[in-house]
Design brief:
- The structure is a single chain.
- It contains seven helices and 35 strands.
- It is of the alpha/beta class and about 600 residues long.
- The protein has three domains: about 180 residues, Sandwich (Jelly Rolls), CATH 2.60.120.260; about 90 residues, Immunoglobulins (Immunoglobulin-like, Sandwich), CATH 2.60.40.10; about 290 residues, Alpha-Beta Barrel (TIM Barrel).
- An eight-stranded parallel beta barrel has the order 23-24-25-26-27-30-32-33, surrounded by five helices.
- Strand 18 and strand 19 form a beta hairpin.
- The protein binds (2S,3S,4S,5R)-3,4,5-trihydroxy-6-oxo-oxane-2-carboxylic acid.
- The site of (2S,3S,4S,5R)-3,4,5-trihydroxy-6-oxo-oxane-2-carboxylic acid has 9 residues, from loops.
- GO terms for molecular function: beta-glucuronidase activity; carbohydrate binding.
- InterPro entries: Beta-gal/glucu_dom_sf, Galactose-bd-like_sf, GH, Glyco_hydro_2, Glyco_hydro_2_AS, Glyco_hydro_2_cat, Glyco_hydro_2_N, Ig-like_fold.
- Pfam families: Glyco_hydro_2 (PF00703), Glyco_hydro_2_C (PF02836), Glyco_hydro_2_N (PF02837).
């Protein structure tokens, strides 16, 4: 009886509430639903609305015409106007734009279906984990709605214990990448709006109560204290202890879990090998809770600022960075460990110790790889250009995406900076919006630095890095495009910059476009020589920027953007890459590499 009650409760819960994010999924007991799925392109949302535009999923007993019912006619006479079995197939994860030529420019609704069997033992619980779906997802299992999620780059999960059957489950997802002004990002971005299920879909099997999430990092500003929390899902106090062990540090710590399912801890440590680019040491960490043994590989480091310096493990560092978009070799959304390796190996070859993962949270593979390779990371949410700063729903959406990103990645030593926004226009509403995001970030993770890529003003020939929001940030970062969108490259050395802030300054973007293989004079736009000269001149200027603590030129690889239309040159690509989308290095790559080599020796 108790079991039935629990199941009923869970079923209701699953349908009505957003659920706590399960973290560290790669080390859990999972079954992948990746692979070939059937899909139906549905521009009019015929599978979602009746002809009088009533939402099927709000009906008491949704019509068989609702695509999430995955219905099949039971006799030859019955009218059914869709059929997943006879619909085309697509690889999941994978965006539809790069997989299906007719869908290259498609923005709208697509339905996806995957069938599966699952033998769930009586004492176990099952969750579905969705790594990322762009942009809005309605998720249904066996005709029942699990929930709706907004935001194209963050994971979410639903419990399906009460719904899953041993045979013939059908998971149906409606993905909608229509752009709206009030969304995050808004309608205008300089990247491709890849639609669909772009990251892993997993089933996670857990015990009745289990470790859902945890934070295990050095306490802010303290190199000898590991602190954090463990959060138990469905905690019942009959066993209230978890054990955190880090054998290499001789830690075997018994932690009491509170009645709220959370246990907070502080564990003193002495001899610790700190994580850094030169020493990307990860310790094997195990959390034992009842029969659960959850492993992770965690690095320990401190990151802080002192006046205009960034201190890693107490010592000043200079961020030799590069900006990166999440695209793979074929020009689609990247998601695999191989995609990550390709991008980060190039960053390493360039001489980087740091990457700016622009302009949204990238997949977990690349962050974990950055941990392993010793690359520090700037992680960002897509508060880009002109989102609706006055709109509370927009704010809540941005905050939700930020929370999910921090929840997923807070145990990764590589992440040193959370970025709130990129090139947002100054206004009171925008200042409040970003200040609130900063306060929220600090309330859930005060151990890292907070920044945003800002714009500057020019006053009497002087570049002013004085955006008011800088008061709330740990690092002042700004984008500038001398020699591309304006300004004279010849006089770059004479350009002068000022800032009222005694804080570290990062040039979060600079650059210019070049078509790889196109050669000419250094004053001829789009040639590799122009881009090379632009880098040479910009670097002369950048060196003189007060409080300079790092840079992340724009960008590692050419990437697809519907805004870049010049035939023969851009052809739908932003050409500011140091490497072409085909993987060939341009001349400017070597300018930057040489500069970083020198900088690395200072
Ligand atoms: C920027 C944006 C970036 C663009 C870039 C460009 O300032 O932050 O997203 O792609 O400029 O190429 O214009």
């Amino acid at each position: 009886m108790k079991k039935i009650l629990i199941l009923v409760f869970l079923a209701t819960f699953a349908i009505t509430e957003a659920q706590g994010l399960i973290t560290n999924v790669s080390n859990r007991n999972t079954t992948s639903l990746n692979g070939v799925w059937n899909y139906i392109v549905d521009p009019y949302e015929t599978g979602y609305y009746s002809f009088h535009h009533d939402e099927y999923d709000k009906q008491k007993k949704p019509s068989n015409a609702a695509f999430f019912n995955n219905y099949h006619a039971v006799n030859k006479q019955e009218l059914v106007e869709y059929d997943f079995d006879k619909s085309p197939q697509i690889n999941i994860p994978g965006d539809w734009n790069s997989q299906v030529p007719e869908l290259k420019f498609y923005e709208g609704n697509v339905w996806f279906r995957k069938s599966f069997d699952y033998d769930l033992k009586a004492s176990k619980r099952l969750f579905i984990y969705l790594g990322a779906i762009n942009y809005k997802a309605d998720v249904y299992l066996n005709g029942k709605k699990l929930g709706t999620h907004e935001g194209g780059f963050t994971p979410f999960n639903y419990e399906i214990t009460a719904i899953v059957k041993p045979k013939d489950n059908y998971l149906v997802i409606k993905a909608d990448n229509t752009r709206h002004k009030e969304d995050v990002p808004t309608i205008n971005t300089d990247w491709w709006n890849y639609g669909g299920i772009t990251r892993d879909i997993l089933l996670i099997e857990e015990n009745e109560s289990f470790v859902e999430d945890y934070n295990i990092q050095l306490k802010k500003g303290n190199q000898n204290l590991i602190s954090g929390f463990i959060k138990i899902n469905n905690f019942n106090s009959s066993q209230d202890q978890a054990i955190i062990s880090i054998p290499e540090l001789k830690i075997n710590y018994k932690l009491k879990i509170g009645t709220d399912g959370i246990g907070n801890f502080e564990i003193p440590v002495k001899k610790i090998s700190y994580w850094s680019p030169e020493n990307p040491k990860l310790y094997e960490v195990t959390i034992d809770f009842k029969e659960q043994k959850l492993r992770d590989a965690i690095g320990f480091r401190t990151i802080e600022t002192q006046e205009d310096k960034i201190l890693l493990n107490g010592k000043p560092i200079f961020l030799r960075g590069i900006s990166i978009h999440e695209e793979n070799a074929k020009g689609g959304r990247a998601h695999t460990a191989e995609d990550a390796l390709r991008l980060l190996n190039w960053a390493k070859e360039l001489g980087c110790n740091y990457v700016r993962l622009a302009h949204y949270p990238h997949n977990e593979n690349i962050i974990r790889l950055a941990d392993q390779l010793g690359l520090m990371v700037w992680e960002e949410i897509p508060v880009y250009w002109t989102v609706e700063f006055e709109n509370n729903k927009t704010y809540q959406n941005a905050e939700n995406q930020l929370t999910a990103a921090i929840t997923r990645d807070k145990n990764r030593a590589s992440i040193i900076i959370w970025s709130m926004a990129n090139e947002t226009p100054v206004s009171d509403a925008r200042n409040t919006f970003i200040k609130n995001l900063v306060a929220h970030t600090k309330s859930i993770d005060n151990s890292r630095l907070v920044s945003a890529a800002l714009l500057t003003r020019h006053v009497n020939g002087v570049g002013m890095i004085d955006d008011e929001i800088g008061k709330s940030l740990d690092i002042i970062a700004f984008n500038q495009y001398l020699g591309w969108y304006g300004g004279n490259l010849e006089n770059a050395e004479k350009a002068f910059w000022e800032t009222p802030y005694n804080k570290p300054v990062i040039v979060s973007e600079f650059g210019g476009g070049a078509k790889q293989g196109l050669h000419g004079e250094k004053n001829e736009r789009w040639t590799e020589e122009y881009q090379e000269y632009l880098y040479i001149q910009n670097l002369k200027m950048i060196e003189k920027i007060p409080h300079l603590s790092g840079l992340s030129p724009w960008i590692l690889v050419d990437f697809r953007s519907p805004k870049r239309l010049l035939p023969g040159i851009q052809d739908g690509y932003n050409r500011k890459g140091l490497i072409s989308n085909e993987g060939f290095k341009k001349k400017a790559f070597f300018v930057m590499k040489e500069w970083y080599e020198k900088k690395g020796k200072e």
